[in-house]
Structures are given as structure tokens and as C-alpha cells.
Amino acid sequence: MHEEDWIPVSVENCGQVRGPFYHGTRADLSVGDMLKAGFTSNYDESVVMNHVYFTSLPKGAGLAAELALGAGRPRVYVVAPTGAFEDDPNVTNKKFPGNPTRSYRSAQPLRIVGELESWELYDPEFILELRRRVQAGMGEIIN
């Protein structure tokens, strides 16, 4: 898709976007649990999140899970938005034209409807470099 063909996803037109959707974390959650805004970031415990973030790309959610803080294993959950959502403005048109990462955010909860057992992994060196950048205060690349 060319940038000029891209139609931004907003809370008004989010119904045009079909899942499945995924959320990556290290938290041990169950089907039926709700992911809600108002909790600390997966990447910086000093930041309270106003939105819950998700993607329609399993590999992207896997990257988020790999980078997340915590002792648990990386997990990718299949999630269903319970309300309106929009393109993640942290990556959409700031870092990448359009929304090639297929990243979204919602102020409304996401319901966990399943868990992926496997997904395409990134190169371990890439993960380490991103983790270093996040720890060095460049968390805006993924938050």
C-alpha cells in the first residue's frame, strides 16, 4: 500500500479494521481477562498508560512480548477490543508512513480470547539492541 492510499484508523471508523488482534506481554493471563489502561507500561514502570496497545501482526506482538519487563516468559495473546480504537500515533506517521506496523491503541479494555503458542521471532541481536535503547531512555520507539 502506498502512503497516499492509506486511510487513518480513528475512533470513528475503527469498525473497518478486522482482526484478529494481538497483545504481547510477559504477564500470565487467562482467556476472559481484560487488559485495561491505567496500569504501568510493559517497558517503563514509571509510566502509567492511558491506552492499551495492540496489533494485527503476531510478529509485532511477539516483539512487544520479548521487550516487556518482567520475569515471565514472553506471551502473545489474541485480544478483542471492547470499544473504539485508533492508529497508534507513536508509530503512525511519526516513525513510519501510514501504519505498516498495524499498531492500534484503545482507552477501552481488550478481552483476552486466546493465546498464540508460537510466532515468527526477530533476530536475538535485534531484540538485545532494542532492549538497550529502551533502557537508555529511548522507550518512545515502542511505547
Automatic annotation (TrEMBL):
Domain annotation Rifampin ADP-ribosyltransferase: ranges: 21-119
Domain of life: Bacteria
A GO molecular-function descriptor: transferase activity
Keywords associated with the record: Transferase
Name of the featured protein: ADP-ribosylating transferase
Record organism: Dyella thiooxydans
